[in-house]
Amino acid sequence: MQVSFLSPTARGADGRASSRKDDQDMDLDFSDLLGQHQTPKGSKDFKDGSIHVVTPGETITSDTQFMRGHGTYVEQEKLVSSVAGVVERVNKLISVKALNTRYSGEIGDVVVGRITEVTQKRWKVDVNGRQDAILMLSSINLPGGVQRRKQESDELQMRTFFMEGDLVVAELQAFFHDGAYSLHTRSLKYGKLRNGSFISVAPALVQRCKSHFHSLSMGVDVILGLNGYIWVSAYVPQNLDEIDTEQVYSNKNKEDISAEDRERIARVSNCILALAQELMFINDTVITFAYEASLQYPLKDLIKQEVKAAIANEAAASVDNLRG
Amino acid sequence: MLISLQRKDRASLEPAQGSFSHHRQHGLRIDGRRTTELRKIRSITSTLSQADGSAYLEHGNTKILAAVYGPREVRSKTNIIHERCYINVEFSMAPFSTTERRRRAKTDKRMLEIAQFVKQSFEPVVLTQIYPRSQVDIYLQILQHDGGILEACINATTLALMDAGVAMEDYVCACTAGWIDKEPALDLNSVEEAQDTSEMTVALLPKSGKIALLQMEARLHVDKLEEVLQLASDGCRQIHTVLDRTIRDRAEDLAHKMPSSS
Fold this sequence. Notes:
Chain A is an alpha+beta fold.
């Protein structure tokens, strides 16, 4: 059992695998440091105590050499947990990772969000965080050609770009002083979402990867937002050189989405929900395996709990096979 | 996730004879408990799929469902607090929760008061300053009313907030105690409450022993206060072990199920 579930998948990355081993060694020595702490019941299952579960108000360590991270606070020189979750340590920084929380972003994250409000010069976007993120008019690609300055007329027609309820994919650009996120869509990868369906899973299940835009082999595009919002859409051939900038903000779906395409989108969506139900990491490989496993069931059975569990188990087995 | 700290309620085995009264038989209360005994507590977290955190709590025959949404964007601009989060508590009782089927108005003063008590006991315990300009919504619904609804509300809210991963200094554990028949008694049920008893609700932070809430509406002789308060505090500590078991089991369960990347 590994300590950190935030580390990226070991898809052939040897360098990463070895560095993770070091982490584990550190955790061993960490649990010795916390020897005074009462180990939780059933901790014998936790191999070498590397999973250390704490609940709010529980003292993690009274050693003053450690620094206070997320999910902890200091009281009378003791480091105390403020959430129920797993203790994580990076050198001298101790944090507690709650397992079921809202999204907490980092700069560079790809997120999927829904416009909740249009105000002067900015949109508010629900990204499953503790505040709505902000998308400034100055941080979107304005239609009508290459880089141009925003004008007053743009401000007046903001609803023609994004309206309340529209779904967008964007990148987290910066934080405001109060911790709110500032987004941008200044790339043709980002922008308004069309031709598909939206699903929401726990943010902890989507890992940071090289790419969050995937075109799956069954002819379905998937955008895995790090905030747990996922967009599953019909395949659209992308040629970044020939995109009509006027079409970027269009509200029209493409016309030729066949019944089969729609069925595939529904199947992929349900597969992702099945993986989420079984708390499995969600990435393009696992989705493909789950999709293949789901083909033996009719589409309408995919909402059944036991079918979902079976699909997720089969996908997990395929992943294990792949890794050998 | 069934937690049985106390003996099963023996009400069914030893029904009260004649009218409802506190007169004990063999030193037992109307539902067969001793004076210092809690009712059976069962609790489950993450019962609702759409809420960020939720909990179902049974305290004897009192049953309650709590849902927590947030921290999220403030719904109404007037509620924005720049340096901390706003906590909103809504309390309701199902029409079928009491012996007499009755729909209660949203403006029922007793219900608003309970919501206010819950809000006041959690505001200093939730680390609100790390969620500036946000809002935490807490929705409480009584499904079955058998006394001690305030204590059940507070305990269920504690579980639901922790399930939602909201940062808190400590647990908030609540318990009632009262004075029945010249003796202090722990955790009164609705029959005991209905008689002319002085009942006290105490919410305690078990780690520091601080009191988050102390509520009493009837008269009680000051000499007896200490004893009743002590009994209720002991009850709070017992409840803490039960709630902690639920939270810890859930966290360990999740920690195991959460995928490892190897």
